[in-house]
């Protein structure tokens, strides 16, 4: 027991420091911050009987990804039941649907326990605590930075805020339009909906959770690539993680998290830092100052191409801007889909790999077509949005496909364990056949 306590002592000290730091930095708003983090922790823990089977190949059994799965499933079921007018959109409905999903997970856990199936990362408490500390720390960092400019002012932020307030007051979905009271919202509102769903679950206020949702997604945009890249590096270095190499998976994970959530397209570095420095050395006078949204206008703008101009919002820009549209909130769900490709590539055979890639590619193509229609890149195709569009056939087929992906992930983990056992057996046989020089000399001396 003393050894276990000593083992997680640094993590315990770090946890106390982060909690105290959050109380100091956020002041009275820290209660809502803690509530959201605890909600994500609890929902993720409850969903582990499902996530643990899907991410069997992960060292942490998909601990971080479980949060997004729980939010996506409970949020979608709530939206569906409200959209078909079976239930009102109230806090009681949100809590009730979440509790029912939790009961299903508890039953599944009981069944798995009887069969001896481990769905929780037993023996990995130190890794889990470190991942939670990382999520808490990144979440706190973005929340603190958002506090310097929390106003819903400029661009489409007032519309995002208005959508959230309209849904908080409404018992139906889509809610009444905040500008046209005789109609409902006729704009895509998935991002704002999930923010309101979590707001109703926690009993919070929109004036606080409007900013909290954007920092919540920003934290996921860091920890999900961290978890995925870390596991990929660990698999790649299997059997060769002695010495300093044992730190490489975590370093690779941090690099992946920075690349997705912070790096952007390095437009700022090139056009705000590098080029002005070159111009200064050359003695060329600056003609214009740098504007923050310039980073989203580089295709067709520099150099100018009138026939191919587009806007590219990378995650960090949207997080700083304060955008809550679906293309921002979807970051945590898209990264979950990326994990589906990882499962496909680690399937037990090529057939399962191709099936898994096909399923995930089909879902990705449907998402792309819907985004293209919304942005007027493609004409209205009539292709349903995965898991959301009305119609039972699409939903049933997609859920069946998710069942296939779960099976592919489970069998892939079994095949991985068999390969590891075969590798260990070969190593034992090799060591048994290896002649140690000192042993041979002693045997010769005795003769």
Q: Can you describe this structure?
A:
The chain is 68% helix and 0% strand. The two termini are 50 Å apart. It is an all-alpha fold and 447 residues long. 31% of the residues are buried. The model has no long low-confidence stretch (mean pLDDT 79). It has helices spanning 2-7, 9-26, 30-46, 48-54, 65-83, 91-114, 125-146, 157-169, 190-202, 206-236, 248-263, 267-282, 315-321, 326-329, 331-345, 350-374, 392-433, 437-446.
What's the gist of this structure?
The chain has 447 residues and is mainly alpha-helical.
Total of helices: 18
As a percent range, the share of helical residues equals 55-70%
What letter string, H or E per element, gives the SSE order?
HHHHHHHHHHHHHHHHHH
Strand content: under 5%
Silhouette: globular
What class do helices, strands and sheet pairing give? mainly alpha
Mean pLDDT level:
79
Chain-wise SSE layout:
Blueprint: H1 2-7, H2 9-26, H3 30-46, H4 48-54, H5 65-83, H6 91-114, H7 125-146, H8 157-169, H9 190-202, H10 206-236, H11 248-263, H12 267-282, H13 315-321, H14 326-329, H15 331-345, H16 350-374, H17 392-433, H18 437-446
Helix pairs in contact: 2-7, 3-5, 5-6, 5-9, 7-10, 8-9, 10-11, 10-15, 15-16, 16-17
């Amino acid at each position: 027991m003393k050894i276990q306590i000593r083992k997680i002592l640094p993590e315990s000290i770090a946890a106390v420091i982060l909690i105290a730091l959050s109380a100091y930095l956020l002041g009275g708003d820290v209660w809502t911050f803690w509530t959201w983090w605890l909600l994500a922790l609890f929902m993720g823990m409850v969903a582990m009987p499902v996530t643990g089977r899907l991410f069997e190949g992960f060292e942490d059994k998909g601990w971080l990804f479980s949060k997004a799965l729980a939010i996506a499933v409970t949020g979608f079921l709530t939206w569906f039941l409200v959209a078909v007018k079976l239930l009102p959109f109230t806090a009681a409905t949100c809590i009730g649907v979440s509790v029912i999903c939790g009961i299903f997970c508890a039953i599944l856990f009981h069944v798995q326990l009887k069969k001896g199936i481990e769905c929780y990362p037993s023996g990995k408490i130190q890794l889990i605590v470190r991942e939670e500390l990382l999520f808490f720390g990144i979440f706190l960092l973005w929340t603190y930075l958002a506090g310097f400019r929390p106003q819903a002012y400029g661009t489409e932020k007032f519309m995002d805020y208005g959508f959230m307030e309209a849904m908080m007051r409404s018992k139906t979905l889509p809610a009444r339009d905040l500008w046209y009271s005789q109609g409902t919202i006729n704009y895509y509102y998935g991002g704002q909906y999930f923010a309101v769903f979590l707001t109703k679950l926690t009993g919070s206020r929109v004036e606080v959770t409007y900013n909290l949702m954007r920092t919540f997604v920003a934290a996921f945009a860091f920890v999900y690539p961290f978890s995925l890249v870390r596991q990929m590096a660990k698999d790649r270095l299997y059997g060769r993680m002695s010495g300093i190499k044992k730190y490489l998976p975590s370093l690779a994970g941090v690099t992946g998290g920075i690349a997705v959530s912070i790096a952007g397209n390095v437009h700022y570095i090139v056009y705000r830092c590098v080029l002005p420095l070159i111009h200064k050395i050359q003695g060329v006078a600056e003609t214009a100052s740098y504007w923050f949204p310039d980073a989203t206008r580089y295709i067709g703008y520099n150099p100018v191409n009138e026939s191919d101009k587009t806007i590219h919002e990378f995650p960090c820009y949207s997080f700083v801007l304060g955008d809550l549209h679906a293309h921002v909130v979807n970051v945590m769900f898209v990264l979950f889909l990326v994990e589906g490709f990882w499962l496909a590539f680690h399937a037990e055979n090529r057939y399962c790999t191709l099936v898994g890639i096909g399923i995930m590619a089909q879902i990705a193509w449907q998402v792309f077509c819907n985004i293209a229609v919304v942005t007027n890149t493609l004409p209205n195709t009539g292709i349903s949005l995965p898991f959301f569009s009305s119609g039972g056939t699409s939903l049933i087929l997609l859920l069946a496909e998710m069942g296939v992906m779960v099976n592919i992930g489970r069998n892939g983990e079994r095949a991985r364990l068999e390969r590891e056992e075969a590798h260990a057996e070969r190593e034992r046989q090799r060591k048994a056949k290896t002649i140690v020089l000192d042993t041979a000399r002693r045997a010769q001396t005795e003769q």
